[in-house]
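Researcher: I'd like a candidate sequence for this fold, 615 residues long. If you have to choose between options at a position, lean toward the conservative one.
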């Protein structure tokens, strides 16, 4: 290292500073705290390296200080091209990312994500030492992801003026915590285009509800977990490497396997003809990627009867003699536990009870309960298996599909969810947000002056998944989102030194005002609601007007979400979803020859509110 790294002779080593006894010991502990979502704040179940990051709205840059051999201090940013050489001297002296690297094709420059996605690939004829760095490779990956994420947040921070205009005029869905009275002072707003942000997830949640309203309730809920011992992973390992050493291989293989499974589920319809689907990729501190998939089946393929459910879902051990391969895969991947009294330290245990409610009861046949997952057939047929020295039977089998489990040889949990009334629960589960950790920081194990941080938790597999540019969420249908606004409160964009007259002229026309204009001049348009217009008319961004489509388009449309606490905006949205062919805001304020002064009064007069005190 001293021979090849040019910085060794200029800056002190961490070892040298440590020997000077000037380093303060810090203890960092992931703590359990009541009142937090257990699905997001769960403790890590694997020994892994991760980065603890501030919340999405944390815009502070990292304070990177170098100490020279002359005892002077120098500050650099993580975007300094020498940062990688200084932080990871064992990986050689290759320069890291720097702003302004040109693409080989086109005029644009290379982004941070593209730079490290390129560096984190194996190529024939190249010995990429970074990929074989073990735990140091994990640290390198999460470090580069933190650099990429913080760069994105800084960009958003520098463009708050444009983003604030969009959010507060109703062009973005409101996040659930948008109107907390504790939010005082300057706020950094993350737009809905920021992957993983609260508006991004809330918008996906609202889109999914719109798909359900148009195509029907979810039919099947599937969880797919990566198998680190897939042959495609093991064959790519170097001698003395384990799958945990190579999150890059795990991410790439799971990405390809998941796409194959999704194709079989959605295009080939192996469980039933699928009309819509949506999915999310998660990690949840388990060290392995897993996917949650929701399928909506076509009429005639719904899981409405117990026979339909038994056809695609099994919750019993298969016969070892008749189906030996399926039996071995179910035993390996779809047996829960052991937990309960026989293993009270299992991760699923809380207050001496399994949070997944295993082991289940024996059942002679499948039956459907109201607003619940089905109770699957689990007969007491004597089939048993030993896991960690403890005897398990059909009561511990995680529901599965025999075809998927046998073919893909990994944990695939299949649940029929047609009977669930609480469909919001299903969608909120897959859009619950990033992994988080409640961190306790102290200077000693007995320090009473501790700091507690509510932070993001990003492991190496998740970091490399994001750096490779793989999708975290996906769905089958595009949802057309319609903005709306109160009179005179439309979104306005303008540059400095623009005259007031120009601003008013450029922003006078909106989708909503031109919908009113269309209904005033076109009898055909009067039969439609605002959210039906995109099916028959196309919005021309240049001329800012609705033009007739040559043929009706099959598209799912929704108005941006609005909270009842927003008052008149909420009631306006209610009226736009109910009144056909309105010609103006004033039209919406009239009903049965009566003129009303507020949209709330008009909505009440039309019977859209149960009584005068609602909302």
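Model: Candidate sequence:
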């Amino acid at each position: 290292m001293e021979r090849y790294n040019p910085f060794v002779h200029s800056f002190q080593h961490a070892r040298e500073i440590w020997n000077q006894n000037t380093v303060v010991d810090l203890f960092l502990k992931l703590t359990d705290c009541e009142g937090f979502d257990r699905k997001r704040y769960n403790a890590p179940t694997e020994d892994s390296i991760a980065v603890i990051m501030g919340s999405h709205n944390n815009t502070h840059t990292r304070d990177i200080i170098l100490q020279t051999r002359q005892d002077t201090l120098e500050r650099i940013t993580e975007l300094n091209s020498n940062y990688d050489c200084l932080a990871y001297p064992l990986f050689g002296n290759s320069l890291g990312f720097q702003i302004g690297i040109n693409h080989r094709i086109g005029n644009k420059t290379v982004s941070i994500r593209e730079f490290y996605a390129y560096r984190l690939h194996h190529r024939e004829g190249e010995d990429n030492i970074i990929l074989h760095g073990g735990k140091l490779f994990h640290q390198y990956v999460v470090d580069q992801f933190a650099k990429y994420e913080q760069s994105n947040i800084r960009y958003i921070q520098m463009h708050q003026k444009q983003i604030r205009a969009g959010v507060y005029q109703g062009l973005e869905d409101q996040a659930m915590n948008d109107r907390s009275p504790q939010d005082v002072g300057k706020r950094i707003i993350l737009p809905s285009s920021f992957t993983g942000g609260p508006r991004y997830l809330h918008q996906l949640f609202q889109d999914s509800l719109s798909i359900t309203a148009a195509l029907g309730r979810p039919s099947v809920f599937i969880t797919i977990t990566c198998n680190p011992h897939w042959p495609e992973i093991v064959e790519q390992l170097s001698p003395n490497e384990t799958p945990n050493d190579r999150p890059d291989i795990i991410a790439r293989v799971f990405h390809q396997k998941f796409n194959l499974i999704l194709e079989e589920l959605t295009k080939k319809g192996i469980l039933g003809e699928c009309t819509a689907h949506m999915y999310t990729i998660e990690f949840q501190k388990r060290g392995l990627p897993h996917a949650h998939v929701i399928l909506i089946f076509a009429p005639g393929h719904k899981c409405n009867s117990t026979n339909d459910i038994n056809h695609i879902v099994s919750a019993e051990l298969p016969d070892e003699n008749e189906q030996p391969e399926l039996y071995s895969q179910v035993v390996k991947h779809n047996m829960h536990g052991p937990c309960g009294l026989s293993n009270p330290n299992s991760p699923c245990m809380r207050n001496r009870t399994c949070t997944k409610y295993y082991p289940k009861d024996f059942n002679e046949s499948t039956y459907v309960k109201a607003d619940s997952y089905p109770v699957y057939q689990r007969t007491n047929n004597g089939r048993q298996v030993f896991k960690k020295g403890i005897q398990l039977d059909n009561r511990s089998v995680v529901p599965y599909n025999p075809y998927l489990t046998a073919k893909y040889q990994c944990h695939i949990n299949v649940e029929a969810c047609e009977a669930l009334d609480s469909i919001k629960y299903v969608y909120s589960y897959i859009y619950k947000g990033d992994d988080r950790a409640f961190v306790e920081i102290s200077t000693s194990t007995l320090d009473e002056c501790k700091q507690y941080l509510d932070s993001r938790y990003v492991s190496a597999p998740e970091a490399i998944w994001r750096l490779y540019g793989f999708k975290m969420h996906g769905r089958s249908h595009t949802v057309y989102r319609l903005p709306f606004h109160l009179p005179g409160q439309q979104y306005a964009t303008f540059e400095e030194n623009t005259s007031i007259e120009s601003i008013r002229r450029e922003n006078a026309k909106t989708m909503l005002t031109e919908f009113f204009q269309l209904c005033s001049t076109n009898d055909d348009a009067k039969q439609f609601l605002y959210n039906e217009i995109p099916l028959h008319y196309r919005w021309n961004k240049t001329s800012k007007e609705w033009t007739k489509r040559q043929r009706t388009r099959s598209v799912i449309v929704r108005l941006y979400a609005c909270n009842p606490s927003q008052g008149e905006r909420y009631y306006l949205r209610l009226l736009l979803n109910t009144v056909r062919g309105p010609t103006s805001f004033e039209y919406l304020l009239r009903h049965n020859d009566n003129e009303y002064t507020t949209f709330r009064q008009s909505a009440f007069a039309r019977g859209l509110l149960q009584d005068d005190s609602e909302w």
